[in-house]
Write a structure and sequence with these properties.
The protein is of the alpha+beta class. About 40% of the residues lie in helices and about 25% in strands. The protein contains 7 helices and 11 strands. Helix 4 packs across helix 6.
Length: about 230
């Protein structure tokens, strides 16, 4: 097992991970960043929003912010994986530089990328990333390749019915903070995928559903303790 994590001072929201595992099985989770991964060795199964994808050697996969996914290697060979974690603000900044205009949050298609030119460019990015002098230009080139390759799609438009369902979900989470939140049920009622629901829930409240529930529990606990202290005086 080998794991190396590097963060960059120039863009403190950029994190690079390089890992080598003989066996791993990551349950459903999500990140608040874009995750651009290059698998150099091995085969892994990635389930993204309940859609299974087999990721093989020399291929690239991209996970969007708040997109629920799981990862598991499925062969006996060691799995060598490299990942870039990009804050949405950083990606949008470079996207604007590439396109010359603000396109809002980008949404990648989740299609497995096997284009030799793209793989070569991302491999070169990982190989040269240790030199921070040209980091900005390297990031701009990387994002330009991904955008021009047609791996993004238009922003998702949320209708009024879905927005109202999100409002109801926020109120339900606030009032029933002691209950376990059912993201699957809430996203279904909002007519969204889980990752879309989490993304727009955070846009509405500033927090993910889990963090929102935790925050309300802390507030209620503090209120209760304060009442106990006042009564004790």
């Amino acid at each position: 097992m080998y794991l190396k994590t590097t963060q960059y001072k120039q863009f403190d929201s950029i994190e690079i991970k390089e890992s080598l595992f003989s066996k791993f099985d990551l349950p459903n989770h999500f990140h608040d960043t874009y995750c651009i991964g290059l698998l150099n060795k091995g085969i892994k199964k990635c389930v993204i929003e309940e859609t299974t994808q087999l990721v093989h050697s020399n291929s690239i996969s991209i996970i969007n912010p708040y997109q629920v996914h799981s990862d598991k290697n499925i062969d006996a060979e060691d799995c060598l994986y490299k990942m870039i974690y990009l804050n949405p603000d950083i990606l949008n900044y470079f996207s604007k530089k590439v396109a010359g205009k603000n396109n809002g949050n980008l949404h990648f298609t989740n299609d497995l990328i096997t284009d030799p030119l793209v793989i070569s460019s991302i491999t070169r990015f990982f190989d040269e990333i240790s030199n921070e002098i040209f980091l900005e230009q390297k990031l701009k080139n990387l994002i330009e390749i991904l955008i021009s390759g047609g791996y993004t799609k238009k922003n998702i438009i949320i209708d009024n019915q879905s927005k109202n369902a999100i409002d109801d979900s926020v109120e339900m989470a606030r009032l029933n903070f002691s209950d376990k939140i059912d993201i699957g049920k809430m996203s279904f009622e909002s007519k969204m995928s889980k990752f879309q629901f989490i993304r727009y829930f955070k846009k509405k409240t500033g927090l993910t559903p889990a963090s929102f529930i935790l925050m309300n529990r802390i507030i209620m606990l503090k209120t209760y303790l304060l009442k106990v202290l006042l009564l004790a005086k």
